[in-house]
Description:
The protein is an alpha+beta fold.
Amino acid sequence: METLLQDIRHALRMLRSAPGFTAAALLALALGIGANTTIFSAVNAMLLKPLPYADPDRLVYVSSTHEKRDKDQITVSYPDYREWSGQNHVFEGMSAFIEDTFTLTGAGEPAQIRGARVTARFFGVLGVDPIRGRGFRGEEEEVGHHHVVVIGQGLWTRQFGSDPALVGKTIALNGRPYTVVGIAPVGLRFPNPGVEVWVPLAVGPESAEDRGTRFLTVIARLKRDRTLPQASAEMSGIAKHLAQTYPQNEGLGTVVVTFSDKLLGNIRPALWLLLGAVVFVLLIACTNVANLLLARSATRRREIALRAALGAGRGRLVRQLLTESMLLALIGGVLGTLLAAWGLQLLLALAPEDVPRLHETAIDGRVLIFTVVLSLLTGLIFGLLPAREATRLDLGTPLKEGTRGALSMGGAGRLLKPLVVGEVALSLILLVGAGLLANSLQHLRGINPGFNPEHLLTVSISLPYSKYPEARQRSEFFHRVLEGVGSIPGVVIAGATNDLPFGASSFNRFFMMPDVEGAAGPTWKEQQPPVAVFEISPDYFRAMGVPQRAGRPFDARDDSGAALTAIINEVLARRYFAGRDPLGKQIRMGSPGNWLPWMTIVGVVGETHLEKLTQEPFAEVYTPHRQGIALGSTATMFLALRTTGDPAGLAAAVRNRVHAIDRDQPLGEVRVMEDLLSRSLVQPRFQALLLSLFALLALVLSAIGIYGVVAYSVRTRTAEIGIRVAMGARGADILRLIVGEGTTLILIGVGVGAAGALALSRLLSRFLYGVTATDPLTFTGVSLLLTLVGVLACYLPARRAAKVDPMAALRCE
Length: 813
């Protein structure tokens, strides 16, 4: 222990004696370790920490699949859920739910609350007990007994002041009394982080036997002695039996996935990509510090020789030098942790809102252990090679050299060149990745979404069925609202739809199977994908800026009681009519035994992207909201208001017009469409931005490393340069010599890095759109940028070398 303390004290003295070296090394280490700690904190929160449920590894999603839609997971009909639950032998329990919105009144201002309708075993399957009260009982799934509610702790605190006596009392949801039977814990954020209300899923007789309407999401808990493959096999067998028994289930299968895969399946690759990027940054930082230590070892050769001459063995010398490296790394780790605390705030500010579990990211015990271990490994990585090289010396030579030994790098010079090549190669790989993601993002921004998002305000409104039980009442309410908001100064035109493109409320989107009379394309039996069905107001397309390709928009002729009409988009027209004119043809939605009435096609509109710009547009059918053909004049609608100025400034006026019609009706989300569209690009923008930041960091570290190596090289070659100048070499010759040698190393590094980037290109392919992973323009541009920066880093010390006074250099020698 005493020897160790001696080594530590000596290491501290040596670090203090070289403040420039110490500052440069600590900066590189702090940046590398800090970046790794930041990203590992996110990996820890999202991938390593268990989900906040009992035995989360046994929780699974069970979804339907369609044989013509590959592995796309689709929602489940209530009869299928009922038979799945009754026939399986692999699950302890199974539950189903559908997200919904509720209007809360009688507790301050009316508020629209996101919630879910769930089956009675919901909380039991999750393994979550309410902190007060209870969950649901089986009989509360029955219509007439379902007016009970479990509310989230956040809503309990915010709206009811954490009243402990609230359990057993009634609150008004959608204008009806619901008895509060439980308070959910604050950690329950399922099935959506915004959900704060859970009510029983009570299904009427018609829906209980309707296999064509698929609206449920199903979760289950595996028995302890069952595995995921066993569950998948049994559920596939049940689905096959149902497909043989019921025509509506033809072509349907099942897929069983874990909660972790469902929640994080799309996030996991991006996390590993970013973690790989920061590992590259750390390797570059280690290379930088190793370069500095190797170069500095030239100034310590005489000191090390003296210690060896006095009896210190090579192992003792290596231990002393490694102690310095480890101490340097630990101090860098402390600084890196401080940087990571700031980096986490930046990460959370830049990250998409809907990234699962990212809000749980923190520097906890596991992260601190990771940082300490990483720091020690880093110290070992960058310290071992310089320590080994510094102790491989001939004792006589350094002692004879006297102070001149400070100017001779000995064997260390052999190692500096491959290290420079290595850090240039790593930097190029990161820069290529960042360039490809940036190019992909640029292509995404150039995609036409199919509508005009500029100057467009969107407002969601969900009517309580208890207050507006009839389709006519709901239709009349939205008709009056559109008339009211359309007269607001600054509003050009107002429309409405049951769901918006890129909207957060995707649970309002309905997909049905089409049956087209006289179509040239395949029928529903040939398992074409379902089409998206919308109910809209007459002016919706004009408000959104969706082009009319043929026929007419809806108007007063499409009122309730009139002949049923529909408008289709270009995708459906191409798929089913194959160049024939669809106008005047008839279409209906549903499935055998549950077909909706025939509708006459009166128009064709352009295709729009509904969920992602990278996703192919769906086939779409639009029906008049006032006719209520497909959805019965849905109670949830989104206003789309085309404005002349800033749309966000009209929110208060819209609220006033709605309250003039119904003072108890709250507004839901009020958003600008440009923001909604921008949100669809948040994840690729986030990935491109972070990787670009890491690549920029790598570029700076590489430039510093190249500069440091060339500067030390110039210093050790002062006598050689002086002799060359004395023999007639001009400044330009010296400049060309130094820059040429450095450029050679840079070009080799660029070549090695390009080969490495090509080898890793397949890993990036899944993140790219509109650009290949081997895009020659990106590779060329990044290579030129890195070469230019590297040459500049060589030029600065070379310029000083070109001005060396030969007499001063020879006197020094």
